[in-house]
Design brief:
alpha/beta, Rossmann fold, 2 domains, seven-stranded parallel sheet, 12 helices, 11 strands, 14% strand
């Protein structure tokens, strides 16, 4: 019999795919959602549902009762203020670990799904790796790094709990809303590139990411339980330094996942256009124009009461030196191997979008 696994944020893009994959391989996933959540993404799975909120410790304790492992996927990617992001992504994650320590017959392991943005941008000539010292500079990245700091503290103080961190790059696939904007733009035969030069980025299809997350849960090395020279305790190397030892202990317990390619916003957009059977043109967007567009998107969002996917924080991320990561550690330690290249993954995504009349 498989593991009883609690998936937080199970109704979301990544969470719902993770629930389906855990079911497919024989585990018993439990979907944790808020009472007000839209659970349409979970209807086909028929998964057991438990209600819980990252703002309510008692609800988290109850949701974790009798589970073997927690996959903490819940979080938000956009908000009007950095405080709102920190409350969910950092303080909420801290409550996850507190609940894990207090739940009756609670979990032995927590996998925290963080973000490449928590590590900070990559050097133009070198992908981000686990041994690099984190340097988040966006509101979102700082909030997810706050969650990583909560994970580190839990690893040091909770002797019976193993903690693993996963840092995905840009994720796309069925049910996605964030990268969908780039695909929709390509459908209009337009690829908007921030600035006048390409910077490197990594990407991964949701199909491959959830398999990586599950592998991290199965066999990932946990964060060390001693204050060694670790990247989460102030150690690590600058982002331009490469190490031959991809399994260096300074980055133990953290895993990047990607499709193995080195992409850019421009190349992603043109691959999306190709998957759509179209040809697109590249439109360089000066930083000032991008900032103005983000400002007005936020202004409209405040009127409607919904934080837009593209805002000034996302604009800051778009003009960084790059968001490119190295998944060598995951490949070596977990046996991770992506099944989708970017062209294959975009073709799969476009078919789903068309079948579901999104495009």
């Amino acid at each position: 019999m498989g593991k009883k696994a609690l998936v937080t944020g199970a109704n979301g893009f990544i969470g719902s795919h993770l629930v389906e994959w855990l079911q497919e391989r024989g585990d018993h996933p439990i979907a944790m959602v808020r009472k007000t959540s839209n659970v349409a993404n979970l209807e086909a799975s028929g998964a057991e549902i438990r209600h819980g909120s990252l703002s309510n410790l008692d609800s988290l304790i109850a949701a974790m009762e009798g589970v073997d492992i927690v996959y903490h996927v819940a979080g938000i990617t956009a908000a009007f203020t950095p405080e709102a992001l920190r409350e969910v992504n950092a303080a909420g994650t801290s409550r996850i670990f507190e609940a894990a320590s207090k739940a009756r017959n609670g979990p032995q392991r927590v996998v925290y799904v963080s973000s490449l943005e928590a590590a900070g941008p990559s050097h133009h000539d070198l992908a981000r790796a686990e041994h690099h010292r984190p340097a988040p500079f966006t509101w979102y990245g700082a909030s997810k790094f706050g969650g990583e700091q909560a994970a580190w503290e839990a690893a040091q103080t909770l002797a019976d709990l193993d903690v693993v961190i996963v840092r995905p790059p840009a994720v796309y696939g069925p049910r996605d809303q964030d990268m969908l904007q780039m695909i929709q733009s390509a459908n209009w035969r337009l690829v908007a590139r921030p600035g006048f030069r390409d910077t490197w980025m990594s990407a991964i299809h949701s199909h491959d990411l959830v398999r990586g997350i599950a592998l991290a849960g199965d066999r990932g090395l946990a964060l060390p339980k001693s204050p060694l020279d670790h990247v989460l305790s102030g150690g690590g190397h600058d982002h331009h330094e490469e190490l031959d030892d991809k399994a260096h202990p300074v980055g133990q317990g953290i895993y990047f996942f990607d499709d193995g390619g080195r992409h850019s916003i421009k190349s992603f957009g043109h691959e999306a256009a190709a998957a759509l059977g179209k040809r697109a043109v590249t439109l360089p967007v000066p930083a000032a124009l991008g900032w103005t567009g983000a400002f007005f998107a936020e202004l409209f969002g405040r009127i409607t009461g919904k934080a837009p996917a593209f805002n000034r924080d996302k604009h800051r991320a778009s003009v960084a030196s790059g968001w490119w990561c190295d998944s060598s550690r995951a490949r070596a330690e977990l046996g991770f191997a992506p099944e989708f290249t970017l062209p294959e993954g975009l073709e799969h995504t476009v078919r789903w979008l068309r079948d579901n009349k999104v495009l």
